[in-house]
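We modelled the chain as a single entity of 155 amino acids. Its sequence is:
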Amino acid sequence: MAVEKEDGGRLVATNRKARHDYTVLETVEAGIVLTGTEVKSLRLGNVNLTDSYAAVRNGEVWLLGAHVSPYERGSYSNVDPRRDRKLLLHRNEIRKLSARASETGITLIPLKLYFTSTNIAKVLLGVCRGKREYDRRQDIAEREARRDIRRKYAR
């Protein structure tokens, strides 16, 4: 199910694997083009952002690999769960993202999918650089150290 956010919107899905595998350099909020049954499925929280990414094609940004489960009560109006979905951004934002994505090692990764307070579906895109194995180990060590400190002071 969706979780209530501070600004009145509802968080539908997060890509927890993205923060583990990538370093997020900056974020951009984008709208997403959906069909009616996809919106209903999103409201139920039936979406998976793992292994999804965004790409710039012909001056448009597309979300690739996101899985939106078919709506149970939908019939002929259900679409392919893994279809490419268009993201809505301003032309200047698309130019900036295209320039950043063309750099070596930079990828556009969806971090969150949520509804705003006005019930508009949005995707939080991260401009990310892949982490190396030693970066991941260092992050895990820092997280465990913080956890140990909290445990020590909680007593």
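As a brief sanity check on the tokenised model: The first helix runs from residue 16 to 21. The longest strand covers residues 22-32.
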